[in-house]
Every structure is written in structure tokens, then in C-alpha cells.
Amino acid sequence: MRKLCLCLFSLLLTISLFPLLLKAKDDDFVRQPPRRVIFTHHDRSDSDPQQVHISLVGKDHMKVSWVTDSKHCSSLVEYGKESGKYNAKANGEHTSYKYFFYTSGKIHHVTIGPLEPSTTYFYRCGGSGPEFSFKTPPSTLPLDFVVVGDLGQTEWTNSTLDHIQSIDYDVLILPGDLSYADTHQPLWDSFGRIVEPYASRRPWMVTEGNHEVEIFPIIYPTGFKAYNARWPMPYQESGSTSNLYYSFEVAGTHVIMLGSYVEFDADSDQYKWLQADLAKIDRKKTPWVVALLHAPWYNTNTAHQGEGETMRLAMEELLYNAQVDLVFQGHVHAYERFTRVYNNKADPCGPIYITIGDGGNREGLALSFEDPASPLSLYREPSFGHGRLKMVNETHAFWGWHRNNDSNFVVKDQVWLQSLSSSKTCSKSVDQKITSPSTKDEL
Ligand SMILES: [Fe+2]
């Protein structure tokens, strides 16, 4: 009898574990817990540049940003196409800020150019210190974006950054949550140091998340003090009056950076700016339009449910009518890709929504998704990783999500996309509201 019971127990155990065993055979990836925060120390002299990063300005300029502990360093960048030979130079501006008992170093911002496309430049900041180099993006398609959100500064962040650097790209775009300093200002400096080897080589274009806000009632009521001082983006060039929302164009792509934590209703400056910006897009010049924002408009993870809903209700129609191709979202620490959506329904002329808040922050992964899955959600997985968007030509792009498998990465989700500007179904005037699309487009 006892033997029979044991046999029955073994049989039941095998049956119940069978799906798991199959999964193990199919994919032996073991999801790992959050990893520790890395505080990157300053090991250069007070006058040497640290936290160097670059960002695009207009069609052929680059902003070089860095910090010095010394207040006596000049905001000067020398640059040229040969290592050690700097035949051009530019001066810029500097700032610093206080946050309670913390005083930042001298934060320098210098715009250099005009620069040639697809060209490597060598540069030096402040007239001394180490040499850096960057490559400018191409002026025409193809173009390679890296997309990473909620980056933080942990061992997972390092893993993600190593994977990003292992394959070349042109521009990194980030939908919010950079340092996770959360008012502890030295962590902004540490973040600048951890990303410098990457952000000094390729332009990093960012928008803000909730971890950039850093509001303190009465004393710092408007927030974004560190973010605006350290990561100024080219907002004036797109007619914006705020560093918290802007757009830029690079090689056939119009990129819109929205602010989830500034006013967005129809009376707001951001809304009016977005309307004007969308109206200016020339799809012959930029056949692709991509938007980034932090709190997701579409999300089937149980984390942060509904947090982007008010903004979606306010602004989704604008993006839909302008035939925005893709919307990247952060905030949720997982990966999720939706089909083309408008107003909570599949729509061949709506944007594809992708959540990519899985860069490697200290808070860990958002492990729980709603069950059953919405038919709008095509792929979802709570793992750290990054995305790559290759704009191949005017009509087609290739998207891939790269999951961190510890020291390696694997491409777990990939899809070809067709630009809405080349879609026969959707090739109507952007002013003309599309009410009932009849045929199904490819993604
Ligand atoms: Fe967030």
C-alpha cells in the first residue's frame, strides 16, 4: 500500500511539474533578483572633467556636458577628427545648484559644430584631462537607436550598458528614470560617472521620469533641479519652453519626448507645444515618428496600473491623428509590446506601444502581469534588458528586445514594422480623422 502511494505521488508530481520541465527544456533562463547599487567614486583630479555625456543639438551640433569639482575650470571643448589634434574649439556655459546641504560641482555645457555626419570626433573638456571620442549619427537612413528605460546604477545597469556597447548604435533614447538619486544628490554624480564610458561616445537623448522630480514642499516646489542642471536637452530648438518636453530630428526620424510629470491637459503649454510640433512634421523628410514618455498609457502589468491614464485621455488623439509610429514607455520594470492601438482597441493606424522600463534599477522587476492577458498585448516578460530599433529605410524598421541573461544577452522578441506614412490603409491626411480602418496592416 505504501509503495502504491509513493508511486501515485511520483506520478502526480511528474504530471504537475511537466509544464515546468518543458519550460526548462525550452528556455533554461533563471530570472534573477535585483542587484546592489554601485556608487562610482571620483578618481580624477578636481580640475579633470567627470560625468561627460553628449546630446544632439539641431541637425549637426552636439552638446558636451561635464562636471568639475574645481570652480576654476573653463567651459571649453577642443575637438577634431584626429586623436590629439584639436583644430576646432568652442566655449559654452556653466551652472551649479544647491539641494539642502549639497552643492554640485561646476556643471559645464558646450555646444560644438557644425559636425559632419557618421564621423568620429576626438575631444577634450576644459583644456586638459583625458581625451574622449564620439561618432555622429548619419544624416540619412538607416539609423540605429538603442532604447533603455529606468536605468539606475546597479550591477544590472552595468550588465545592460555592457550589452548596449557590445553592438554599435547611433543614438540612445531613454523614457525616464535615470539615476534613482531620489534627492540623495551624490547619486546623481555617481550616475554620471557610471554612464560616462557610454554617454560620452554616443548621444543620449532623455526625458524625465518620477525619479527625476525631487520636489520638496515650499523649499523646492517645482522640482527637476538636478535633472535640468545636469541633463539639458535641446528643447528651444523644437519651440518648447521647457526642458521637460521637446522633440528632435535625426536621419529620417522625428522623436518626441513628452513629460509625464508636467501639465498635459488641453490648456497646458505642453499640449499646445505638442500640437504645434506635430503640425510641423514633414513625413517626406522624417517618414518615422517616435514618441517617448514615462508613465505607460498601455500596460497589463499589475504595477503602476492606470498611472498614465489621465495623460492618455488628454493626448492620445493627438498622437493618433499625427500617425505616430511607436510610443516607448518606462516606469514599469518589465518589457511589454502591444499591437497597434488607439483608444483601447486594436487599430492598424495607431502607434505600437512598448514598455521598456527594464534597464536595471535598484527596485527590481515588476513580476506580475494581469491574467488573462489582454489580446492587445503581444509579448510581455519581467526581465532586465534593452531594445534596439533599426530604422532600415523609409518604409521598414526592425525592433528587437534583448534580455540580460547575466553576462550575456539574448534577443527574445523581434518584429518588423512598417511606417504608417507608407501604409496604404493609413495614408490619409493627418487632419482627416480615420474612423473605420477596414484592412489589417502589418505591424
Ligand atoms: Fe518610474
TrEMBL record:
Purple acid phosphatase C-terminal domain span: 350-407
InterPro entries: Calcineurin-like_PHP, Metallo-depent_PP-like, MPP_PAP, PAPs-like, PAPs_C, PAPs_N, Purple_acid_Pase-like_N
Domain of life the protein comes from: Eukaryota
EC assignment: 3.1.3.2
Gene3D superfamilies: 3.60.21.10, Purple acid phosphatase-like, N-terminal
Catalytic activity, as annotated: a phosphate monoester + H2O = an alcohol + phosphate
CDD domains the UniProt entry points to: MPP_PAPs (cd00839)
Residue ranges annotated for the Calcineurin-like phosphoesterase domain, each copy included: 145-335
Keywords from the UniProt entry: Glycoprotein, Hydrolase, Iron, Metal-binding, Signal, Zinc
UniProt enzyme class: hydrolase
Required cofactor names: Zn(2+); Fe cation
Residue intervals of the Purple acid phosphatase N-terminal domain: 49-136
Keyword Zinc annotated: yes
PANTHER family: ACID PHOSPHATASE RELATED (PTHR22953), PURPLE ACID PHOSPHATASE 22 (PTHR22953:SF7)
UniProt similarity note: Belongs to the metallophosphoesterase superfamily. Purple acid phosphatase family.
Name of the protein this chain belongs to: Purple acid phosphatase
Organism: Rosa chinensis (China rose)
High-level lineage: Eukaryota, Viridiplantae, Streptophyta, Embryophyta, Tracheophyta
